[in-house]
């Protein structure tokens, strides 16, 4: 190929750009993001280019200057790609497009970048973009101004030949052993009009690493009979969990047909496709009574806060904060800080972590900290949010002139803000030290374990795992002394250290085993003290029997039975925590006002729609129990489907109750789920709950994992059936066995009548299973 004295600028002719100049599989080496092992190293990159132009004049004259010299094109792209470092394939592709348009005078170009070492289990991942000169300003083409990564309707992100193992197929042998399947994904980002998008930044919505991790986690834990269900699930996960707008999923099953390479299905789905199905399958709460059906309710609960509505649309930024306190009432400090964050209409707290009591770091001669994390939605910009946080810290008494990392009543840090990176003299996002702090990562993992750190390319759960591994290597066998906790009567309870005993105190005439024994306030107060002396940690006072087929009483009668007992106990200086056993919001509200410390709701908020608001109002621990129907109907509702999967249903149903409670403003660290042994469950189903309790409390796939589960098997009918003991007061030995199974299954609290007898059972069970 020769060069002439004419240049392309001298011969511009208005010709249609129907021709293409192609460069196929140009291999370069570049540091671009991280490799499959998440290391920042030089990697092979495969580039394919299609330049849209007209070669008519060059074809007519056989004179190269009338076209684009593909040798020059190749060298330009190769030199540009290898001299610079990029954090994303999107940024590299966009940069190549700008260079070719500006230096090689291409009117339009398609750039495809394949990164063969992008993922461990895929052949490659990458991006394909199409750009025209009109897509850029002159400043962006010349490099005078930064050019943000933007997507348009022609772009795709792809993952090629992702290999996964899973159970798939209808034949019996296919249900026994995992098979290899091959996935090809094409993600369509669509038009991206996000203002102020930073250069070389790609959100998690378009991050193939995040998308593949999420899909892999769900698929390899699942079991499918058809490839159609498989590909639909992949598309649904990508759209609903990863928030992509549109995706094509092609799945091949190499072992499907003996004389064929593979068989499979390809589908394309978008958000609109799943929207109608989601609306049709929306779950409606069953058995919820209206406030207006409760006599006198409107006049007796006027102090309850209004029901929280959905998060306002203008709160568009998603932010994760870390909170800590080690001066004064730490739990109250954290709660007050969250309330102050929500003052005004600029911030909504949408989720909170569990609480952790942690030893001090950096400056060790100070009290232990209480740490948590929260997720907020806000329309405040980072520096505006920082100012609000500093104002809250100052108002709560933090002294900024004391020793750095020293004692403080409140400390709030911005960990993540959307997926941005930000740095100036006063603020760095993501938080610069979060990956080295277990007291930050543990609570953050409760609410954001699958969120990816925008600089470190790892999920929060991975950062925690890596930190724990480093700590173990540095000090083998050492204990971090971090305890999951919840606040109870101005004390911090380490529920992961011992199983708590909740002593039952019924002030009813008709309870199934002790009805009428403690129906006066004096008798109930004496019994409460006896339960504490016997070893109870909490006293649970109930004024209405919820045994099967019992009659419900009025709220006035329930209040008459319960409130005087609580008032008498507190008047006598009784300092042990008191729980109120009720599903009525007005009873719970008056009980907490009288001195109770915990709400134990057998309906998990279903019977009274105002209950969640009362729980949020008082910020006390709450037990949410699984049941169906009411005391008269629950034993007719023991059908859990063909598989009788009562444990699976408990997990799903309590998860919905927990999410409703959190949405109402209840903090996660205050929530205690209860599988409801004996409630809407026959004897075999109650045994199944105890037998499979670890699936609820310890399995990573369980929605209840991490919560301090309460189990109440005391004197229940299933024990009487097994022991042939009709007298409920003589079922202590059977209760002891059930409590032992509860501890072995991961229960944090057991609710019993016979505290003195069960106390030693729990001590021994803890010594065996709580290690």
From TrEMBL:
* Entry superkingdom: Eukaryota
The terms under GO molecular function for this entry are: 2-amino-4-hydroxy-6-hydroxymethyldihydropteridine diphosphokinase activity; ATP binding; dihydroneopterin aldolase activity; dihydropteroate synthase activity; kinase activity; metal ion binding
SUPFAM superfamilies tied to this protein:
6-hydroxymethyl-7,8-dihydropterin pyrophosphokinase, HPPK, Dihydropteroate synthetase-like, Tetrahydrobiopterin biosynthesis enzymes-like
Q: Which cofactor does it need?
A: Mg(2+)
EC number(s)? 2.5.1.15, 2.7.6.3, 4.1.2.25
Q: Which UniProt keywords apply?
A: ATP-binding, Folate biosynthesis, Kinase, Magnesium, Metal-binding, Multifunctional enzyme, Nucleotide-binding, Transferase
Q: Which Pfam families match?
A: FolB, HPPK, Pterin_bind
Q: Where is the Pterin-binding domain?
A: 499-763
Task: Write out the pathway annotation from the protein's UniProt entry.
Answer: Cofactor biosynthesis; tetrahydrofolate biosynthesis; 2-amino-4-hydroxy-6-hydroxymethyl-7,8-dihydropteridine diphosphate from 7,8-dihydroneopterin triphosphate: step 3/4; Cofactor biosynthesis; tetrahydrofolate biosynthesis; 7,8-dihydrofolate from 2-amino-4-hydroxy-6-hydroxymethyl-7,8-dihydropteridine diphosphate and 4-aminobenzoate: step 1/2; Cofactor biosynthesis; tetrahydrofolate biosynthesis; 2-amino-4-hydroxy-6-hydroxymethyl-7,8-dihydropteridine diphosphate from 7,8-dihydroneopterin triphosphate: step 4/4
InterPro entries for the chain: DHP_synth-like, DHP_synth_dom, Dihydropteroate_synth-like_sf, FolB_dom, GTP-CH-I_C/QueF, Hppk, Hppk_sf, Pterin-binding_dom
A biological process term (GO) from this entry: folic acid biosynthetic process
A single Gene Ontology CC annotation of this entry is: mitochondrial envelope
Reaction equations catalysed: (7,8-dihydropterin-6-yl)methyl diphosphate + 4-aminobenzoate = 7,8-dihydropteroate + diphosphate; 6-hydroxymethyl-7,8-dihydropterin + ATP = (7,8-dihydropterin-6-yl)methyl diphosphate + AMP + H(+); 7,8-dihydroneopterin = 6-hydroxymethyl-7,8-dihydropterin + glycolaldehyde
Family as reported in the entry's similarity comment: In the central section; belongs to the HPPK family. In the C-terminal section; belongs to the DHPS family.
What is its biological role? Catalyzes three sequential steps of tetrahydrofolate biosynthesis.
User: Mind telling me what this protein is named?
Assistant: Folic acid synthesis protein FOL1
In its UniProt entry, the species of origin is given as Linnemannia gamsii
Q: Which gene encodes it?
A: FOL1
């Amino acid at each position: 190929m020769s060069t002439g004295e004419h240049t392309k600028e001298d011969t511009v002719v208005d010709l249609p750009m129907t021709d293409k100049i192609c460069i196929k599989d140009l291999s370069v080496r570049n540091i671009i993001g991280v490799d499959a092992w998440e290391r920042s190293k030089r990697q092979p990159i495969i580039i394919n280019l299609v330049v849209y132009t007209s070669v008519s004049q060059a074809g007519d004259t056989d004179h190269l200057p009338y076209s684009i010299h593909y040798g020059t094109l190749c060298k330009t792209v190769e030199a540009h790609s290898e001299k610079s470092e990029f954090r994303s394939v999107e940024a590299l592709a966009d940069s190549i497009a700008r260079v070719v348009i500006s230096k090689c005078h291409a009117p339009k170009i398609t750039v495809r970048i394949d990164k063969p070492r992008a993922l461990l289990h895929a052949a490659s991942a990458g991006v394909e973009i199409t750009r025209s000169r009109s897509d850029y300003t002159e400043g962006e083409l010349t490099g005078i101004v930064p050019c943000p990564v933007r997507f348009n309707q022609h772009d795709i992100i792809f993952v090629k030949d992702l290999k996964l193992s899973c159970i798939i197929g209808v034949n019996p042998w296919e249900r026994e052993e995992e098979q290899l399947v091959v996935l090809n994904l094409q993600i369509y980002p669509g038009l991206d009009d996000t203002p102020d998008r930073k250069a070389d930044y790609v959100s998690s919505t378009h991050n193939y690493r995040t998308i593949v991790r999420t899909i892999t986690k769900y698929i390899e834990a699942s079991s499918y009979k058809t490839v159609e269900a498989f590909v639909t699930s992949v598309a649904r996960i990508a759209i609903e969990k990863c928030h992509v707008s549109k995706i094509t999923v092609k799945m091949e099953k190499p072992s499907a047909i003996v004389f064929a390479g593979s068989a499979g299905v390809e589908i394309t789905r978008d958000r609109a496709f799943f929207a109608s199905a989601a609306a049709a399958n929306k779950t409606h709460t069953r058995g919820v009574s209206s406030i207006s059906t409760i006599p006198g309710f409107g006049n007796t609960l006027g102090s309850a806060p209004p029901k929280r509505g959905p998060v306002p649309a203008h709160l568009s930024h998603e932010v994760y904060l870390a909170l800590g306190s080690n001066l004064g009432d730490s739990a109250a400090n954290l709660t007050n800080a969250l309330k102050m964050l929500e003052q005004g209409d600029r911030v909504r707290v949408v989720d909170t972590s569990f609480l952790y009591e942690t030893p001090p770091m950096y400056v060790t001669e100070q009290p232990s900290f209480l740490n948590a994390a929260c997720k907020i939605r806000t329309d405040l910009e980072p520096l505006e949010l920082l100012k609000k946080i500093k104002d809250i810290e100052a108002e709560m008494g933090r002294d900024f002139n004391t020793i750095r990392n020293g004692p403080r009543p409140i400390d709030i840090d911005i960990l993540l803000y959307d997926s941005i990176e930000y740095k100036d003299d006063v603020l760095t996002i993501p938080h610069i030290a979060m990956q080295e702090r277990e007291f930050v990562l543990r609570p953050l993992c409760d609410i954001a374990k699958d969120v990816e750190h925008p600089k470190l390319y790892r999920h929060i759960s991975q950062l925690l795992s890596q930190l724990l591994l480093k700590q173990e290597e540095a000090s083998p066998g050492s204990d971090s002394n971090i305890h999951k906790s919840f606040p109870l009567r101005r004390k911090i309870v380490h529920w992961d250290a011992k199983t708590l005993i909740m002593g039952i105190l019924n002030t009813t005439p008709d309870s199934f085993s002790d009805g009428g024994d403690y129906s006066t306030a004096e008798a109930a107060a004496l019994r409460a003290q006896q339960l504490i002396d016997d070893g109870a940690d909490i006293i649970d006072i109930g004024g209405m029997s919820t045994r099967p087929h019992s009659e419900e009483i009025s709220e006035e009668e329930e209040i008459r039975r319960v409130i005087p007992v609580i008032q008498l106990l507190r008047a006598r200086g009784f300092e042990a925590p008191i729980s109120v056993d009720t599903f009525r919001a007005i009873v719970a509200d008056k009980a907490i006002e009288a001195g109770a410390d915990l709400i134990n709701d057998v309906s998990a908020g279903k019977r009274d729609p105002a209950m969640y608001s009362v729980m949020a109002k008082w910020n006390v621990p709450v037990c949410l129990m699984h049941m169906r129907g009411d005391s008269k109907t629950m034993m007719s509702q023991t059908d859990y489907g063909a598989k009788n999967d009562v444990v699976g249903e408990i997990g799903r149903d309590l998860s919905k109750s927990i999410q409703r409670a959190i949405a109402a403003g209840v903090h996660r660290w205050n929530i205690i789920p209860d599988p409801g042994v004996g409630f809407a469950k026959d004897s075999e189903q109650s045994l199944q709950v105890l037998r499979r309790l670890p699936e609820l409390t310890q399995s990573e796939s369980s929605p209840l994992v991490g919560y301090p589960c309460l189990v109440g098997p005391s004197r229940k009918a299933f024990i009487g059936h097994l022991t042939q003991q009709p007298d409920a007061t003589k079922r202590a030995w059977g209760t002891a066995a059930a409590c032992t199974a509860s501890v072995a299954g991961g229960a944090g609290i057991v609710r019993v009548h016979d505290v003195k007898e069960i106390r030693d059972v729990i001590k021994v069970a803890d010594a065996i299973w709580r290690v």
